[in-house]
Specification:
With 211 residues, the chain is α+β, with helices and mostly antiparallel strands. The chain has helices at residues 2-17, 23-37, 40-51; strands at residues 71-81, 87-98, 105-117, 122-133, 138-149, 154-163, 168-178, 182-192, 198-200, 203-208.
């Protein structure tokens, strides 16, 4: 988890320095991660990044991404090899390639689907929109986010972050998770991709559905 948190800190720093419109949700996640870990060292770093724009003038953040992509693709399917054991396929209606940008990112629109294969299970993440920060191996999904697995698990939420390198999922939004025996409704999710190490915020519903 230490590597996971440091990656978020580095990503947020670059995003804020370049005034990209992606930072607000990441700040909330970082606050949650920091308090959960209870490491004052990390909290000091995060506070420095978030609050130390020590200019007297306010920071201007654009409302939407106005950069020019190096290419645009429609009805695409792309392959990512995350490791020797894991391979991913992402598809959707439209892909904007900003790998020419300092942040090195790509945006995906409409019917976005990420399929992750390994020897143990297959996980599928669907959403209306996604962005991948290639250098950080980090993704964000927005709008009707749904995860299904070959083990019969289902997770739904409105926004989700995915650390592809560490295979870690997290969100500050409300979510609903169902497996073969339980249904969990809560805010804040912090979990590995297999859902074997799952931490939530305040529970708003928990039902045992085992017979």
């Amino acid at each position: 988890m230490e590597e996971h948190l440091l990656k978020l800190i580095s990503l947020l720093k670059v995003i804020k320095e370049q005034q990209y419109p992606f930072h607000a949700g990441l700040e909330e996640v970082l606050r949650f991660q920091t308090f959960k870990m209870k490491y004052s060292f990390y909290f000091s770093i995060i506070s420095l990044i978030i609050f130390s724009s020590c200019n007297t003038e306010p920071t201007v953040v654009v409302s939407q991404n106005k950069k020019t992509p190096v290419s645009i693709a429609h009805n695409f399917t792309m392959t990512y090899t995350d490791s020797t054991l894991t391979k991913s396929f992402v598809s959707g209606k439209t892909h904007y390639d900003f790998t020419n940008d300092q942040l090195n990112f790509s945006e995906f629109f409409e019917d976005v689907e990420l399929i992750i294969y390994d020897d143990n299970k297959t996980s599928t993440i669907r959403s209306d929109y996604a962005i991948v920060f290639n250098s950080f191996r980090f993704m964000e999904f927005k709008g009707n986010v749904e995860i299904t697995t070959t083990d019969g698990e289902l997770l739904t939420t409105s926004q989700l972050y995915y650390d592809t390198e560490n295979e870690w999922l997290f969100t500050e939004d409300n979510f609903e998770y169902t497996d073969k025996t339980n249904k969990i409704i809560a805010n804040r999710l912090d979990s590995n991709r297999d859902f074997t190490d799952l931490v939530t915020g305040k529970l708003t519903g928990s039902i045992n559905i085992a017979e």
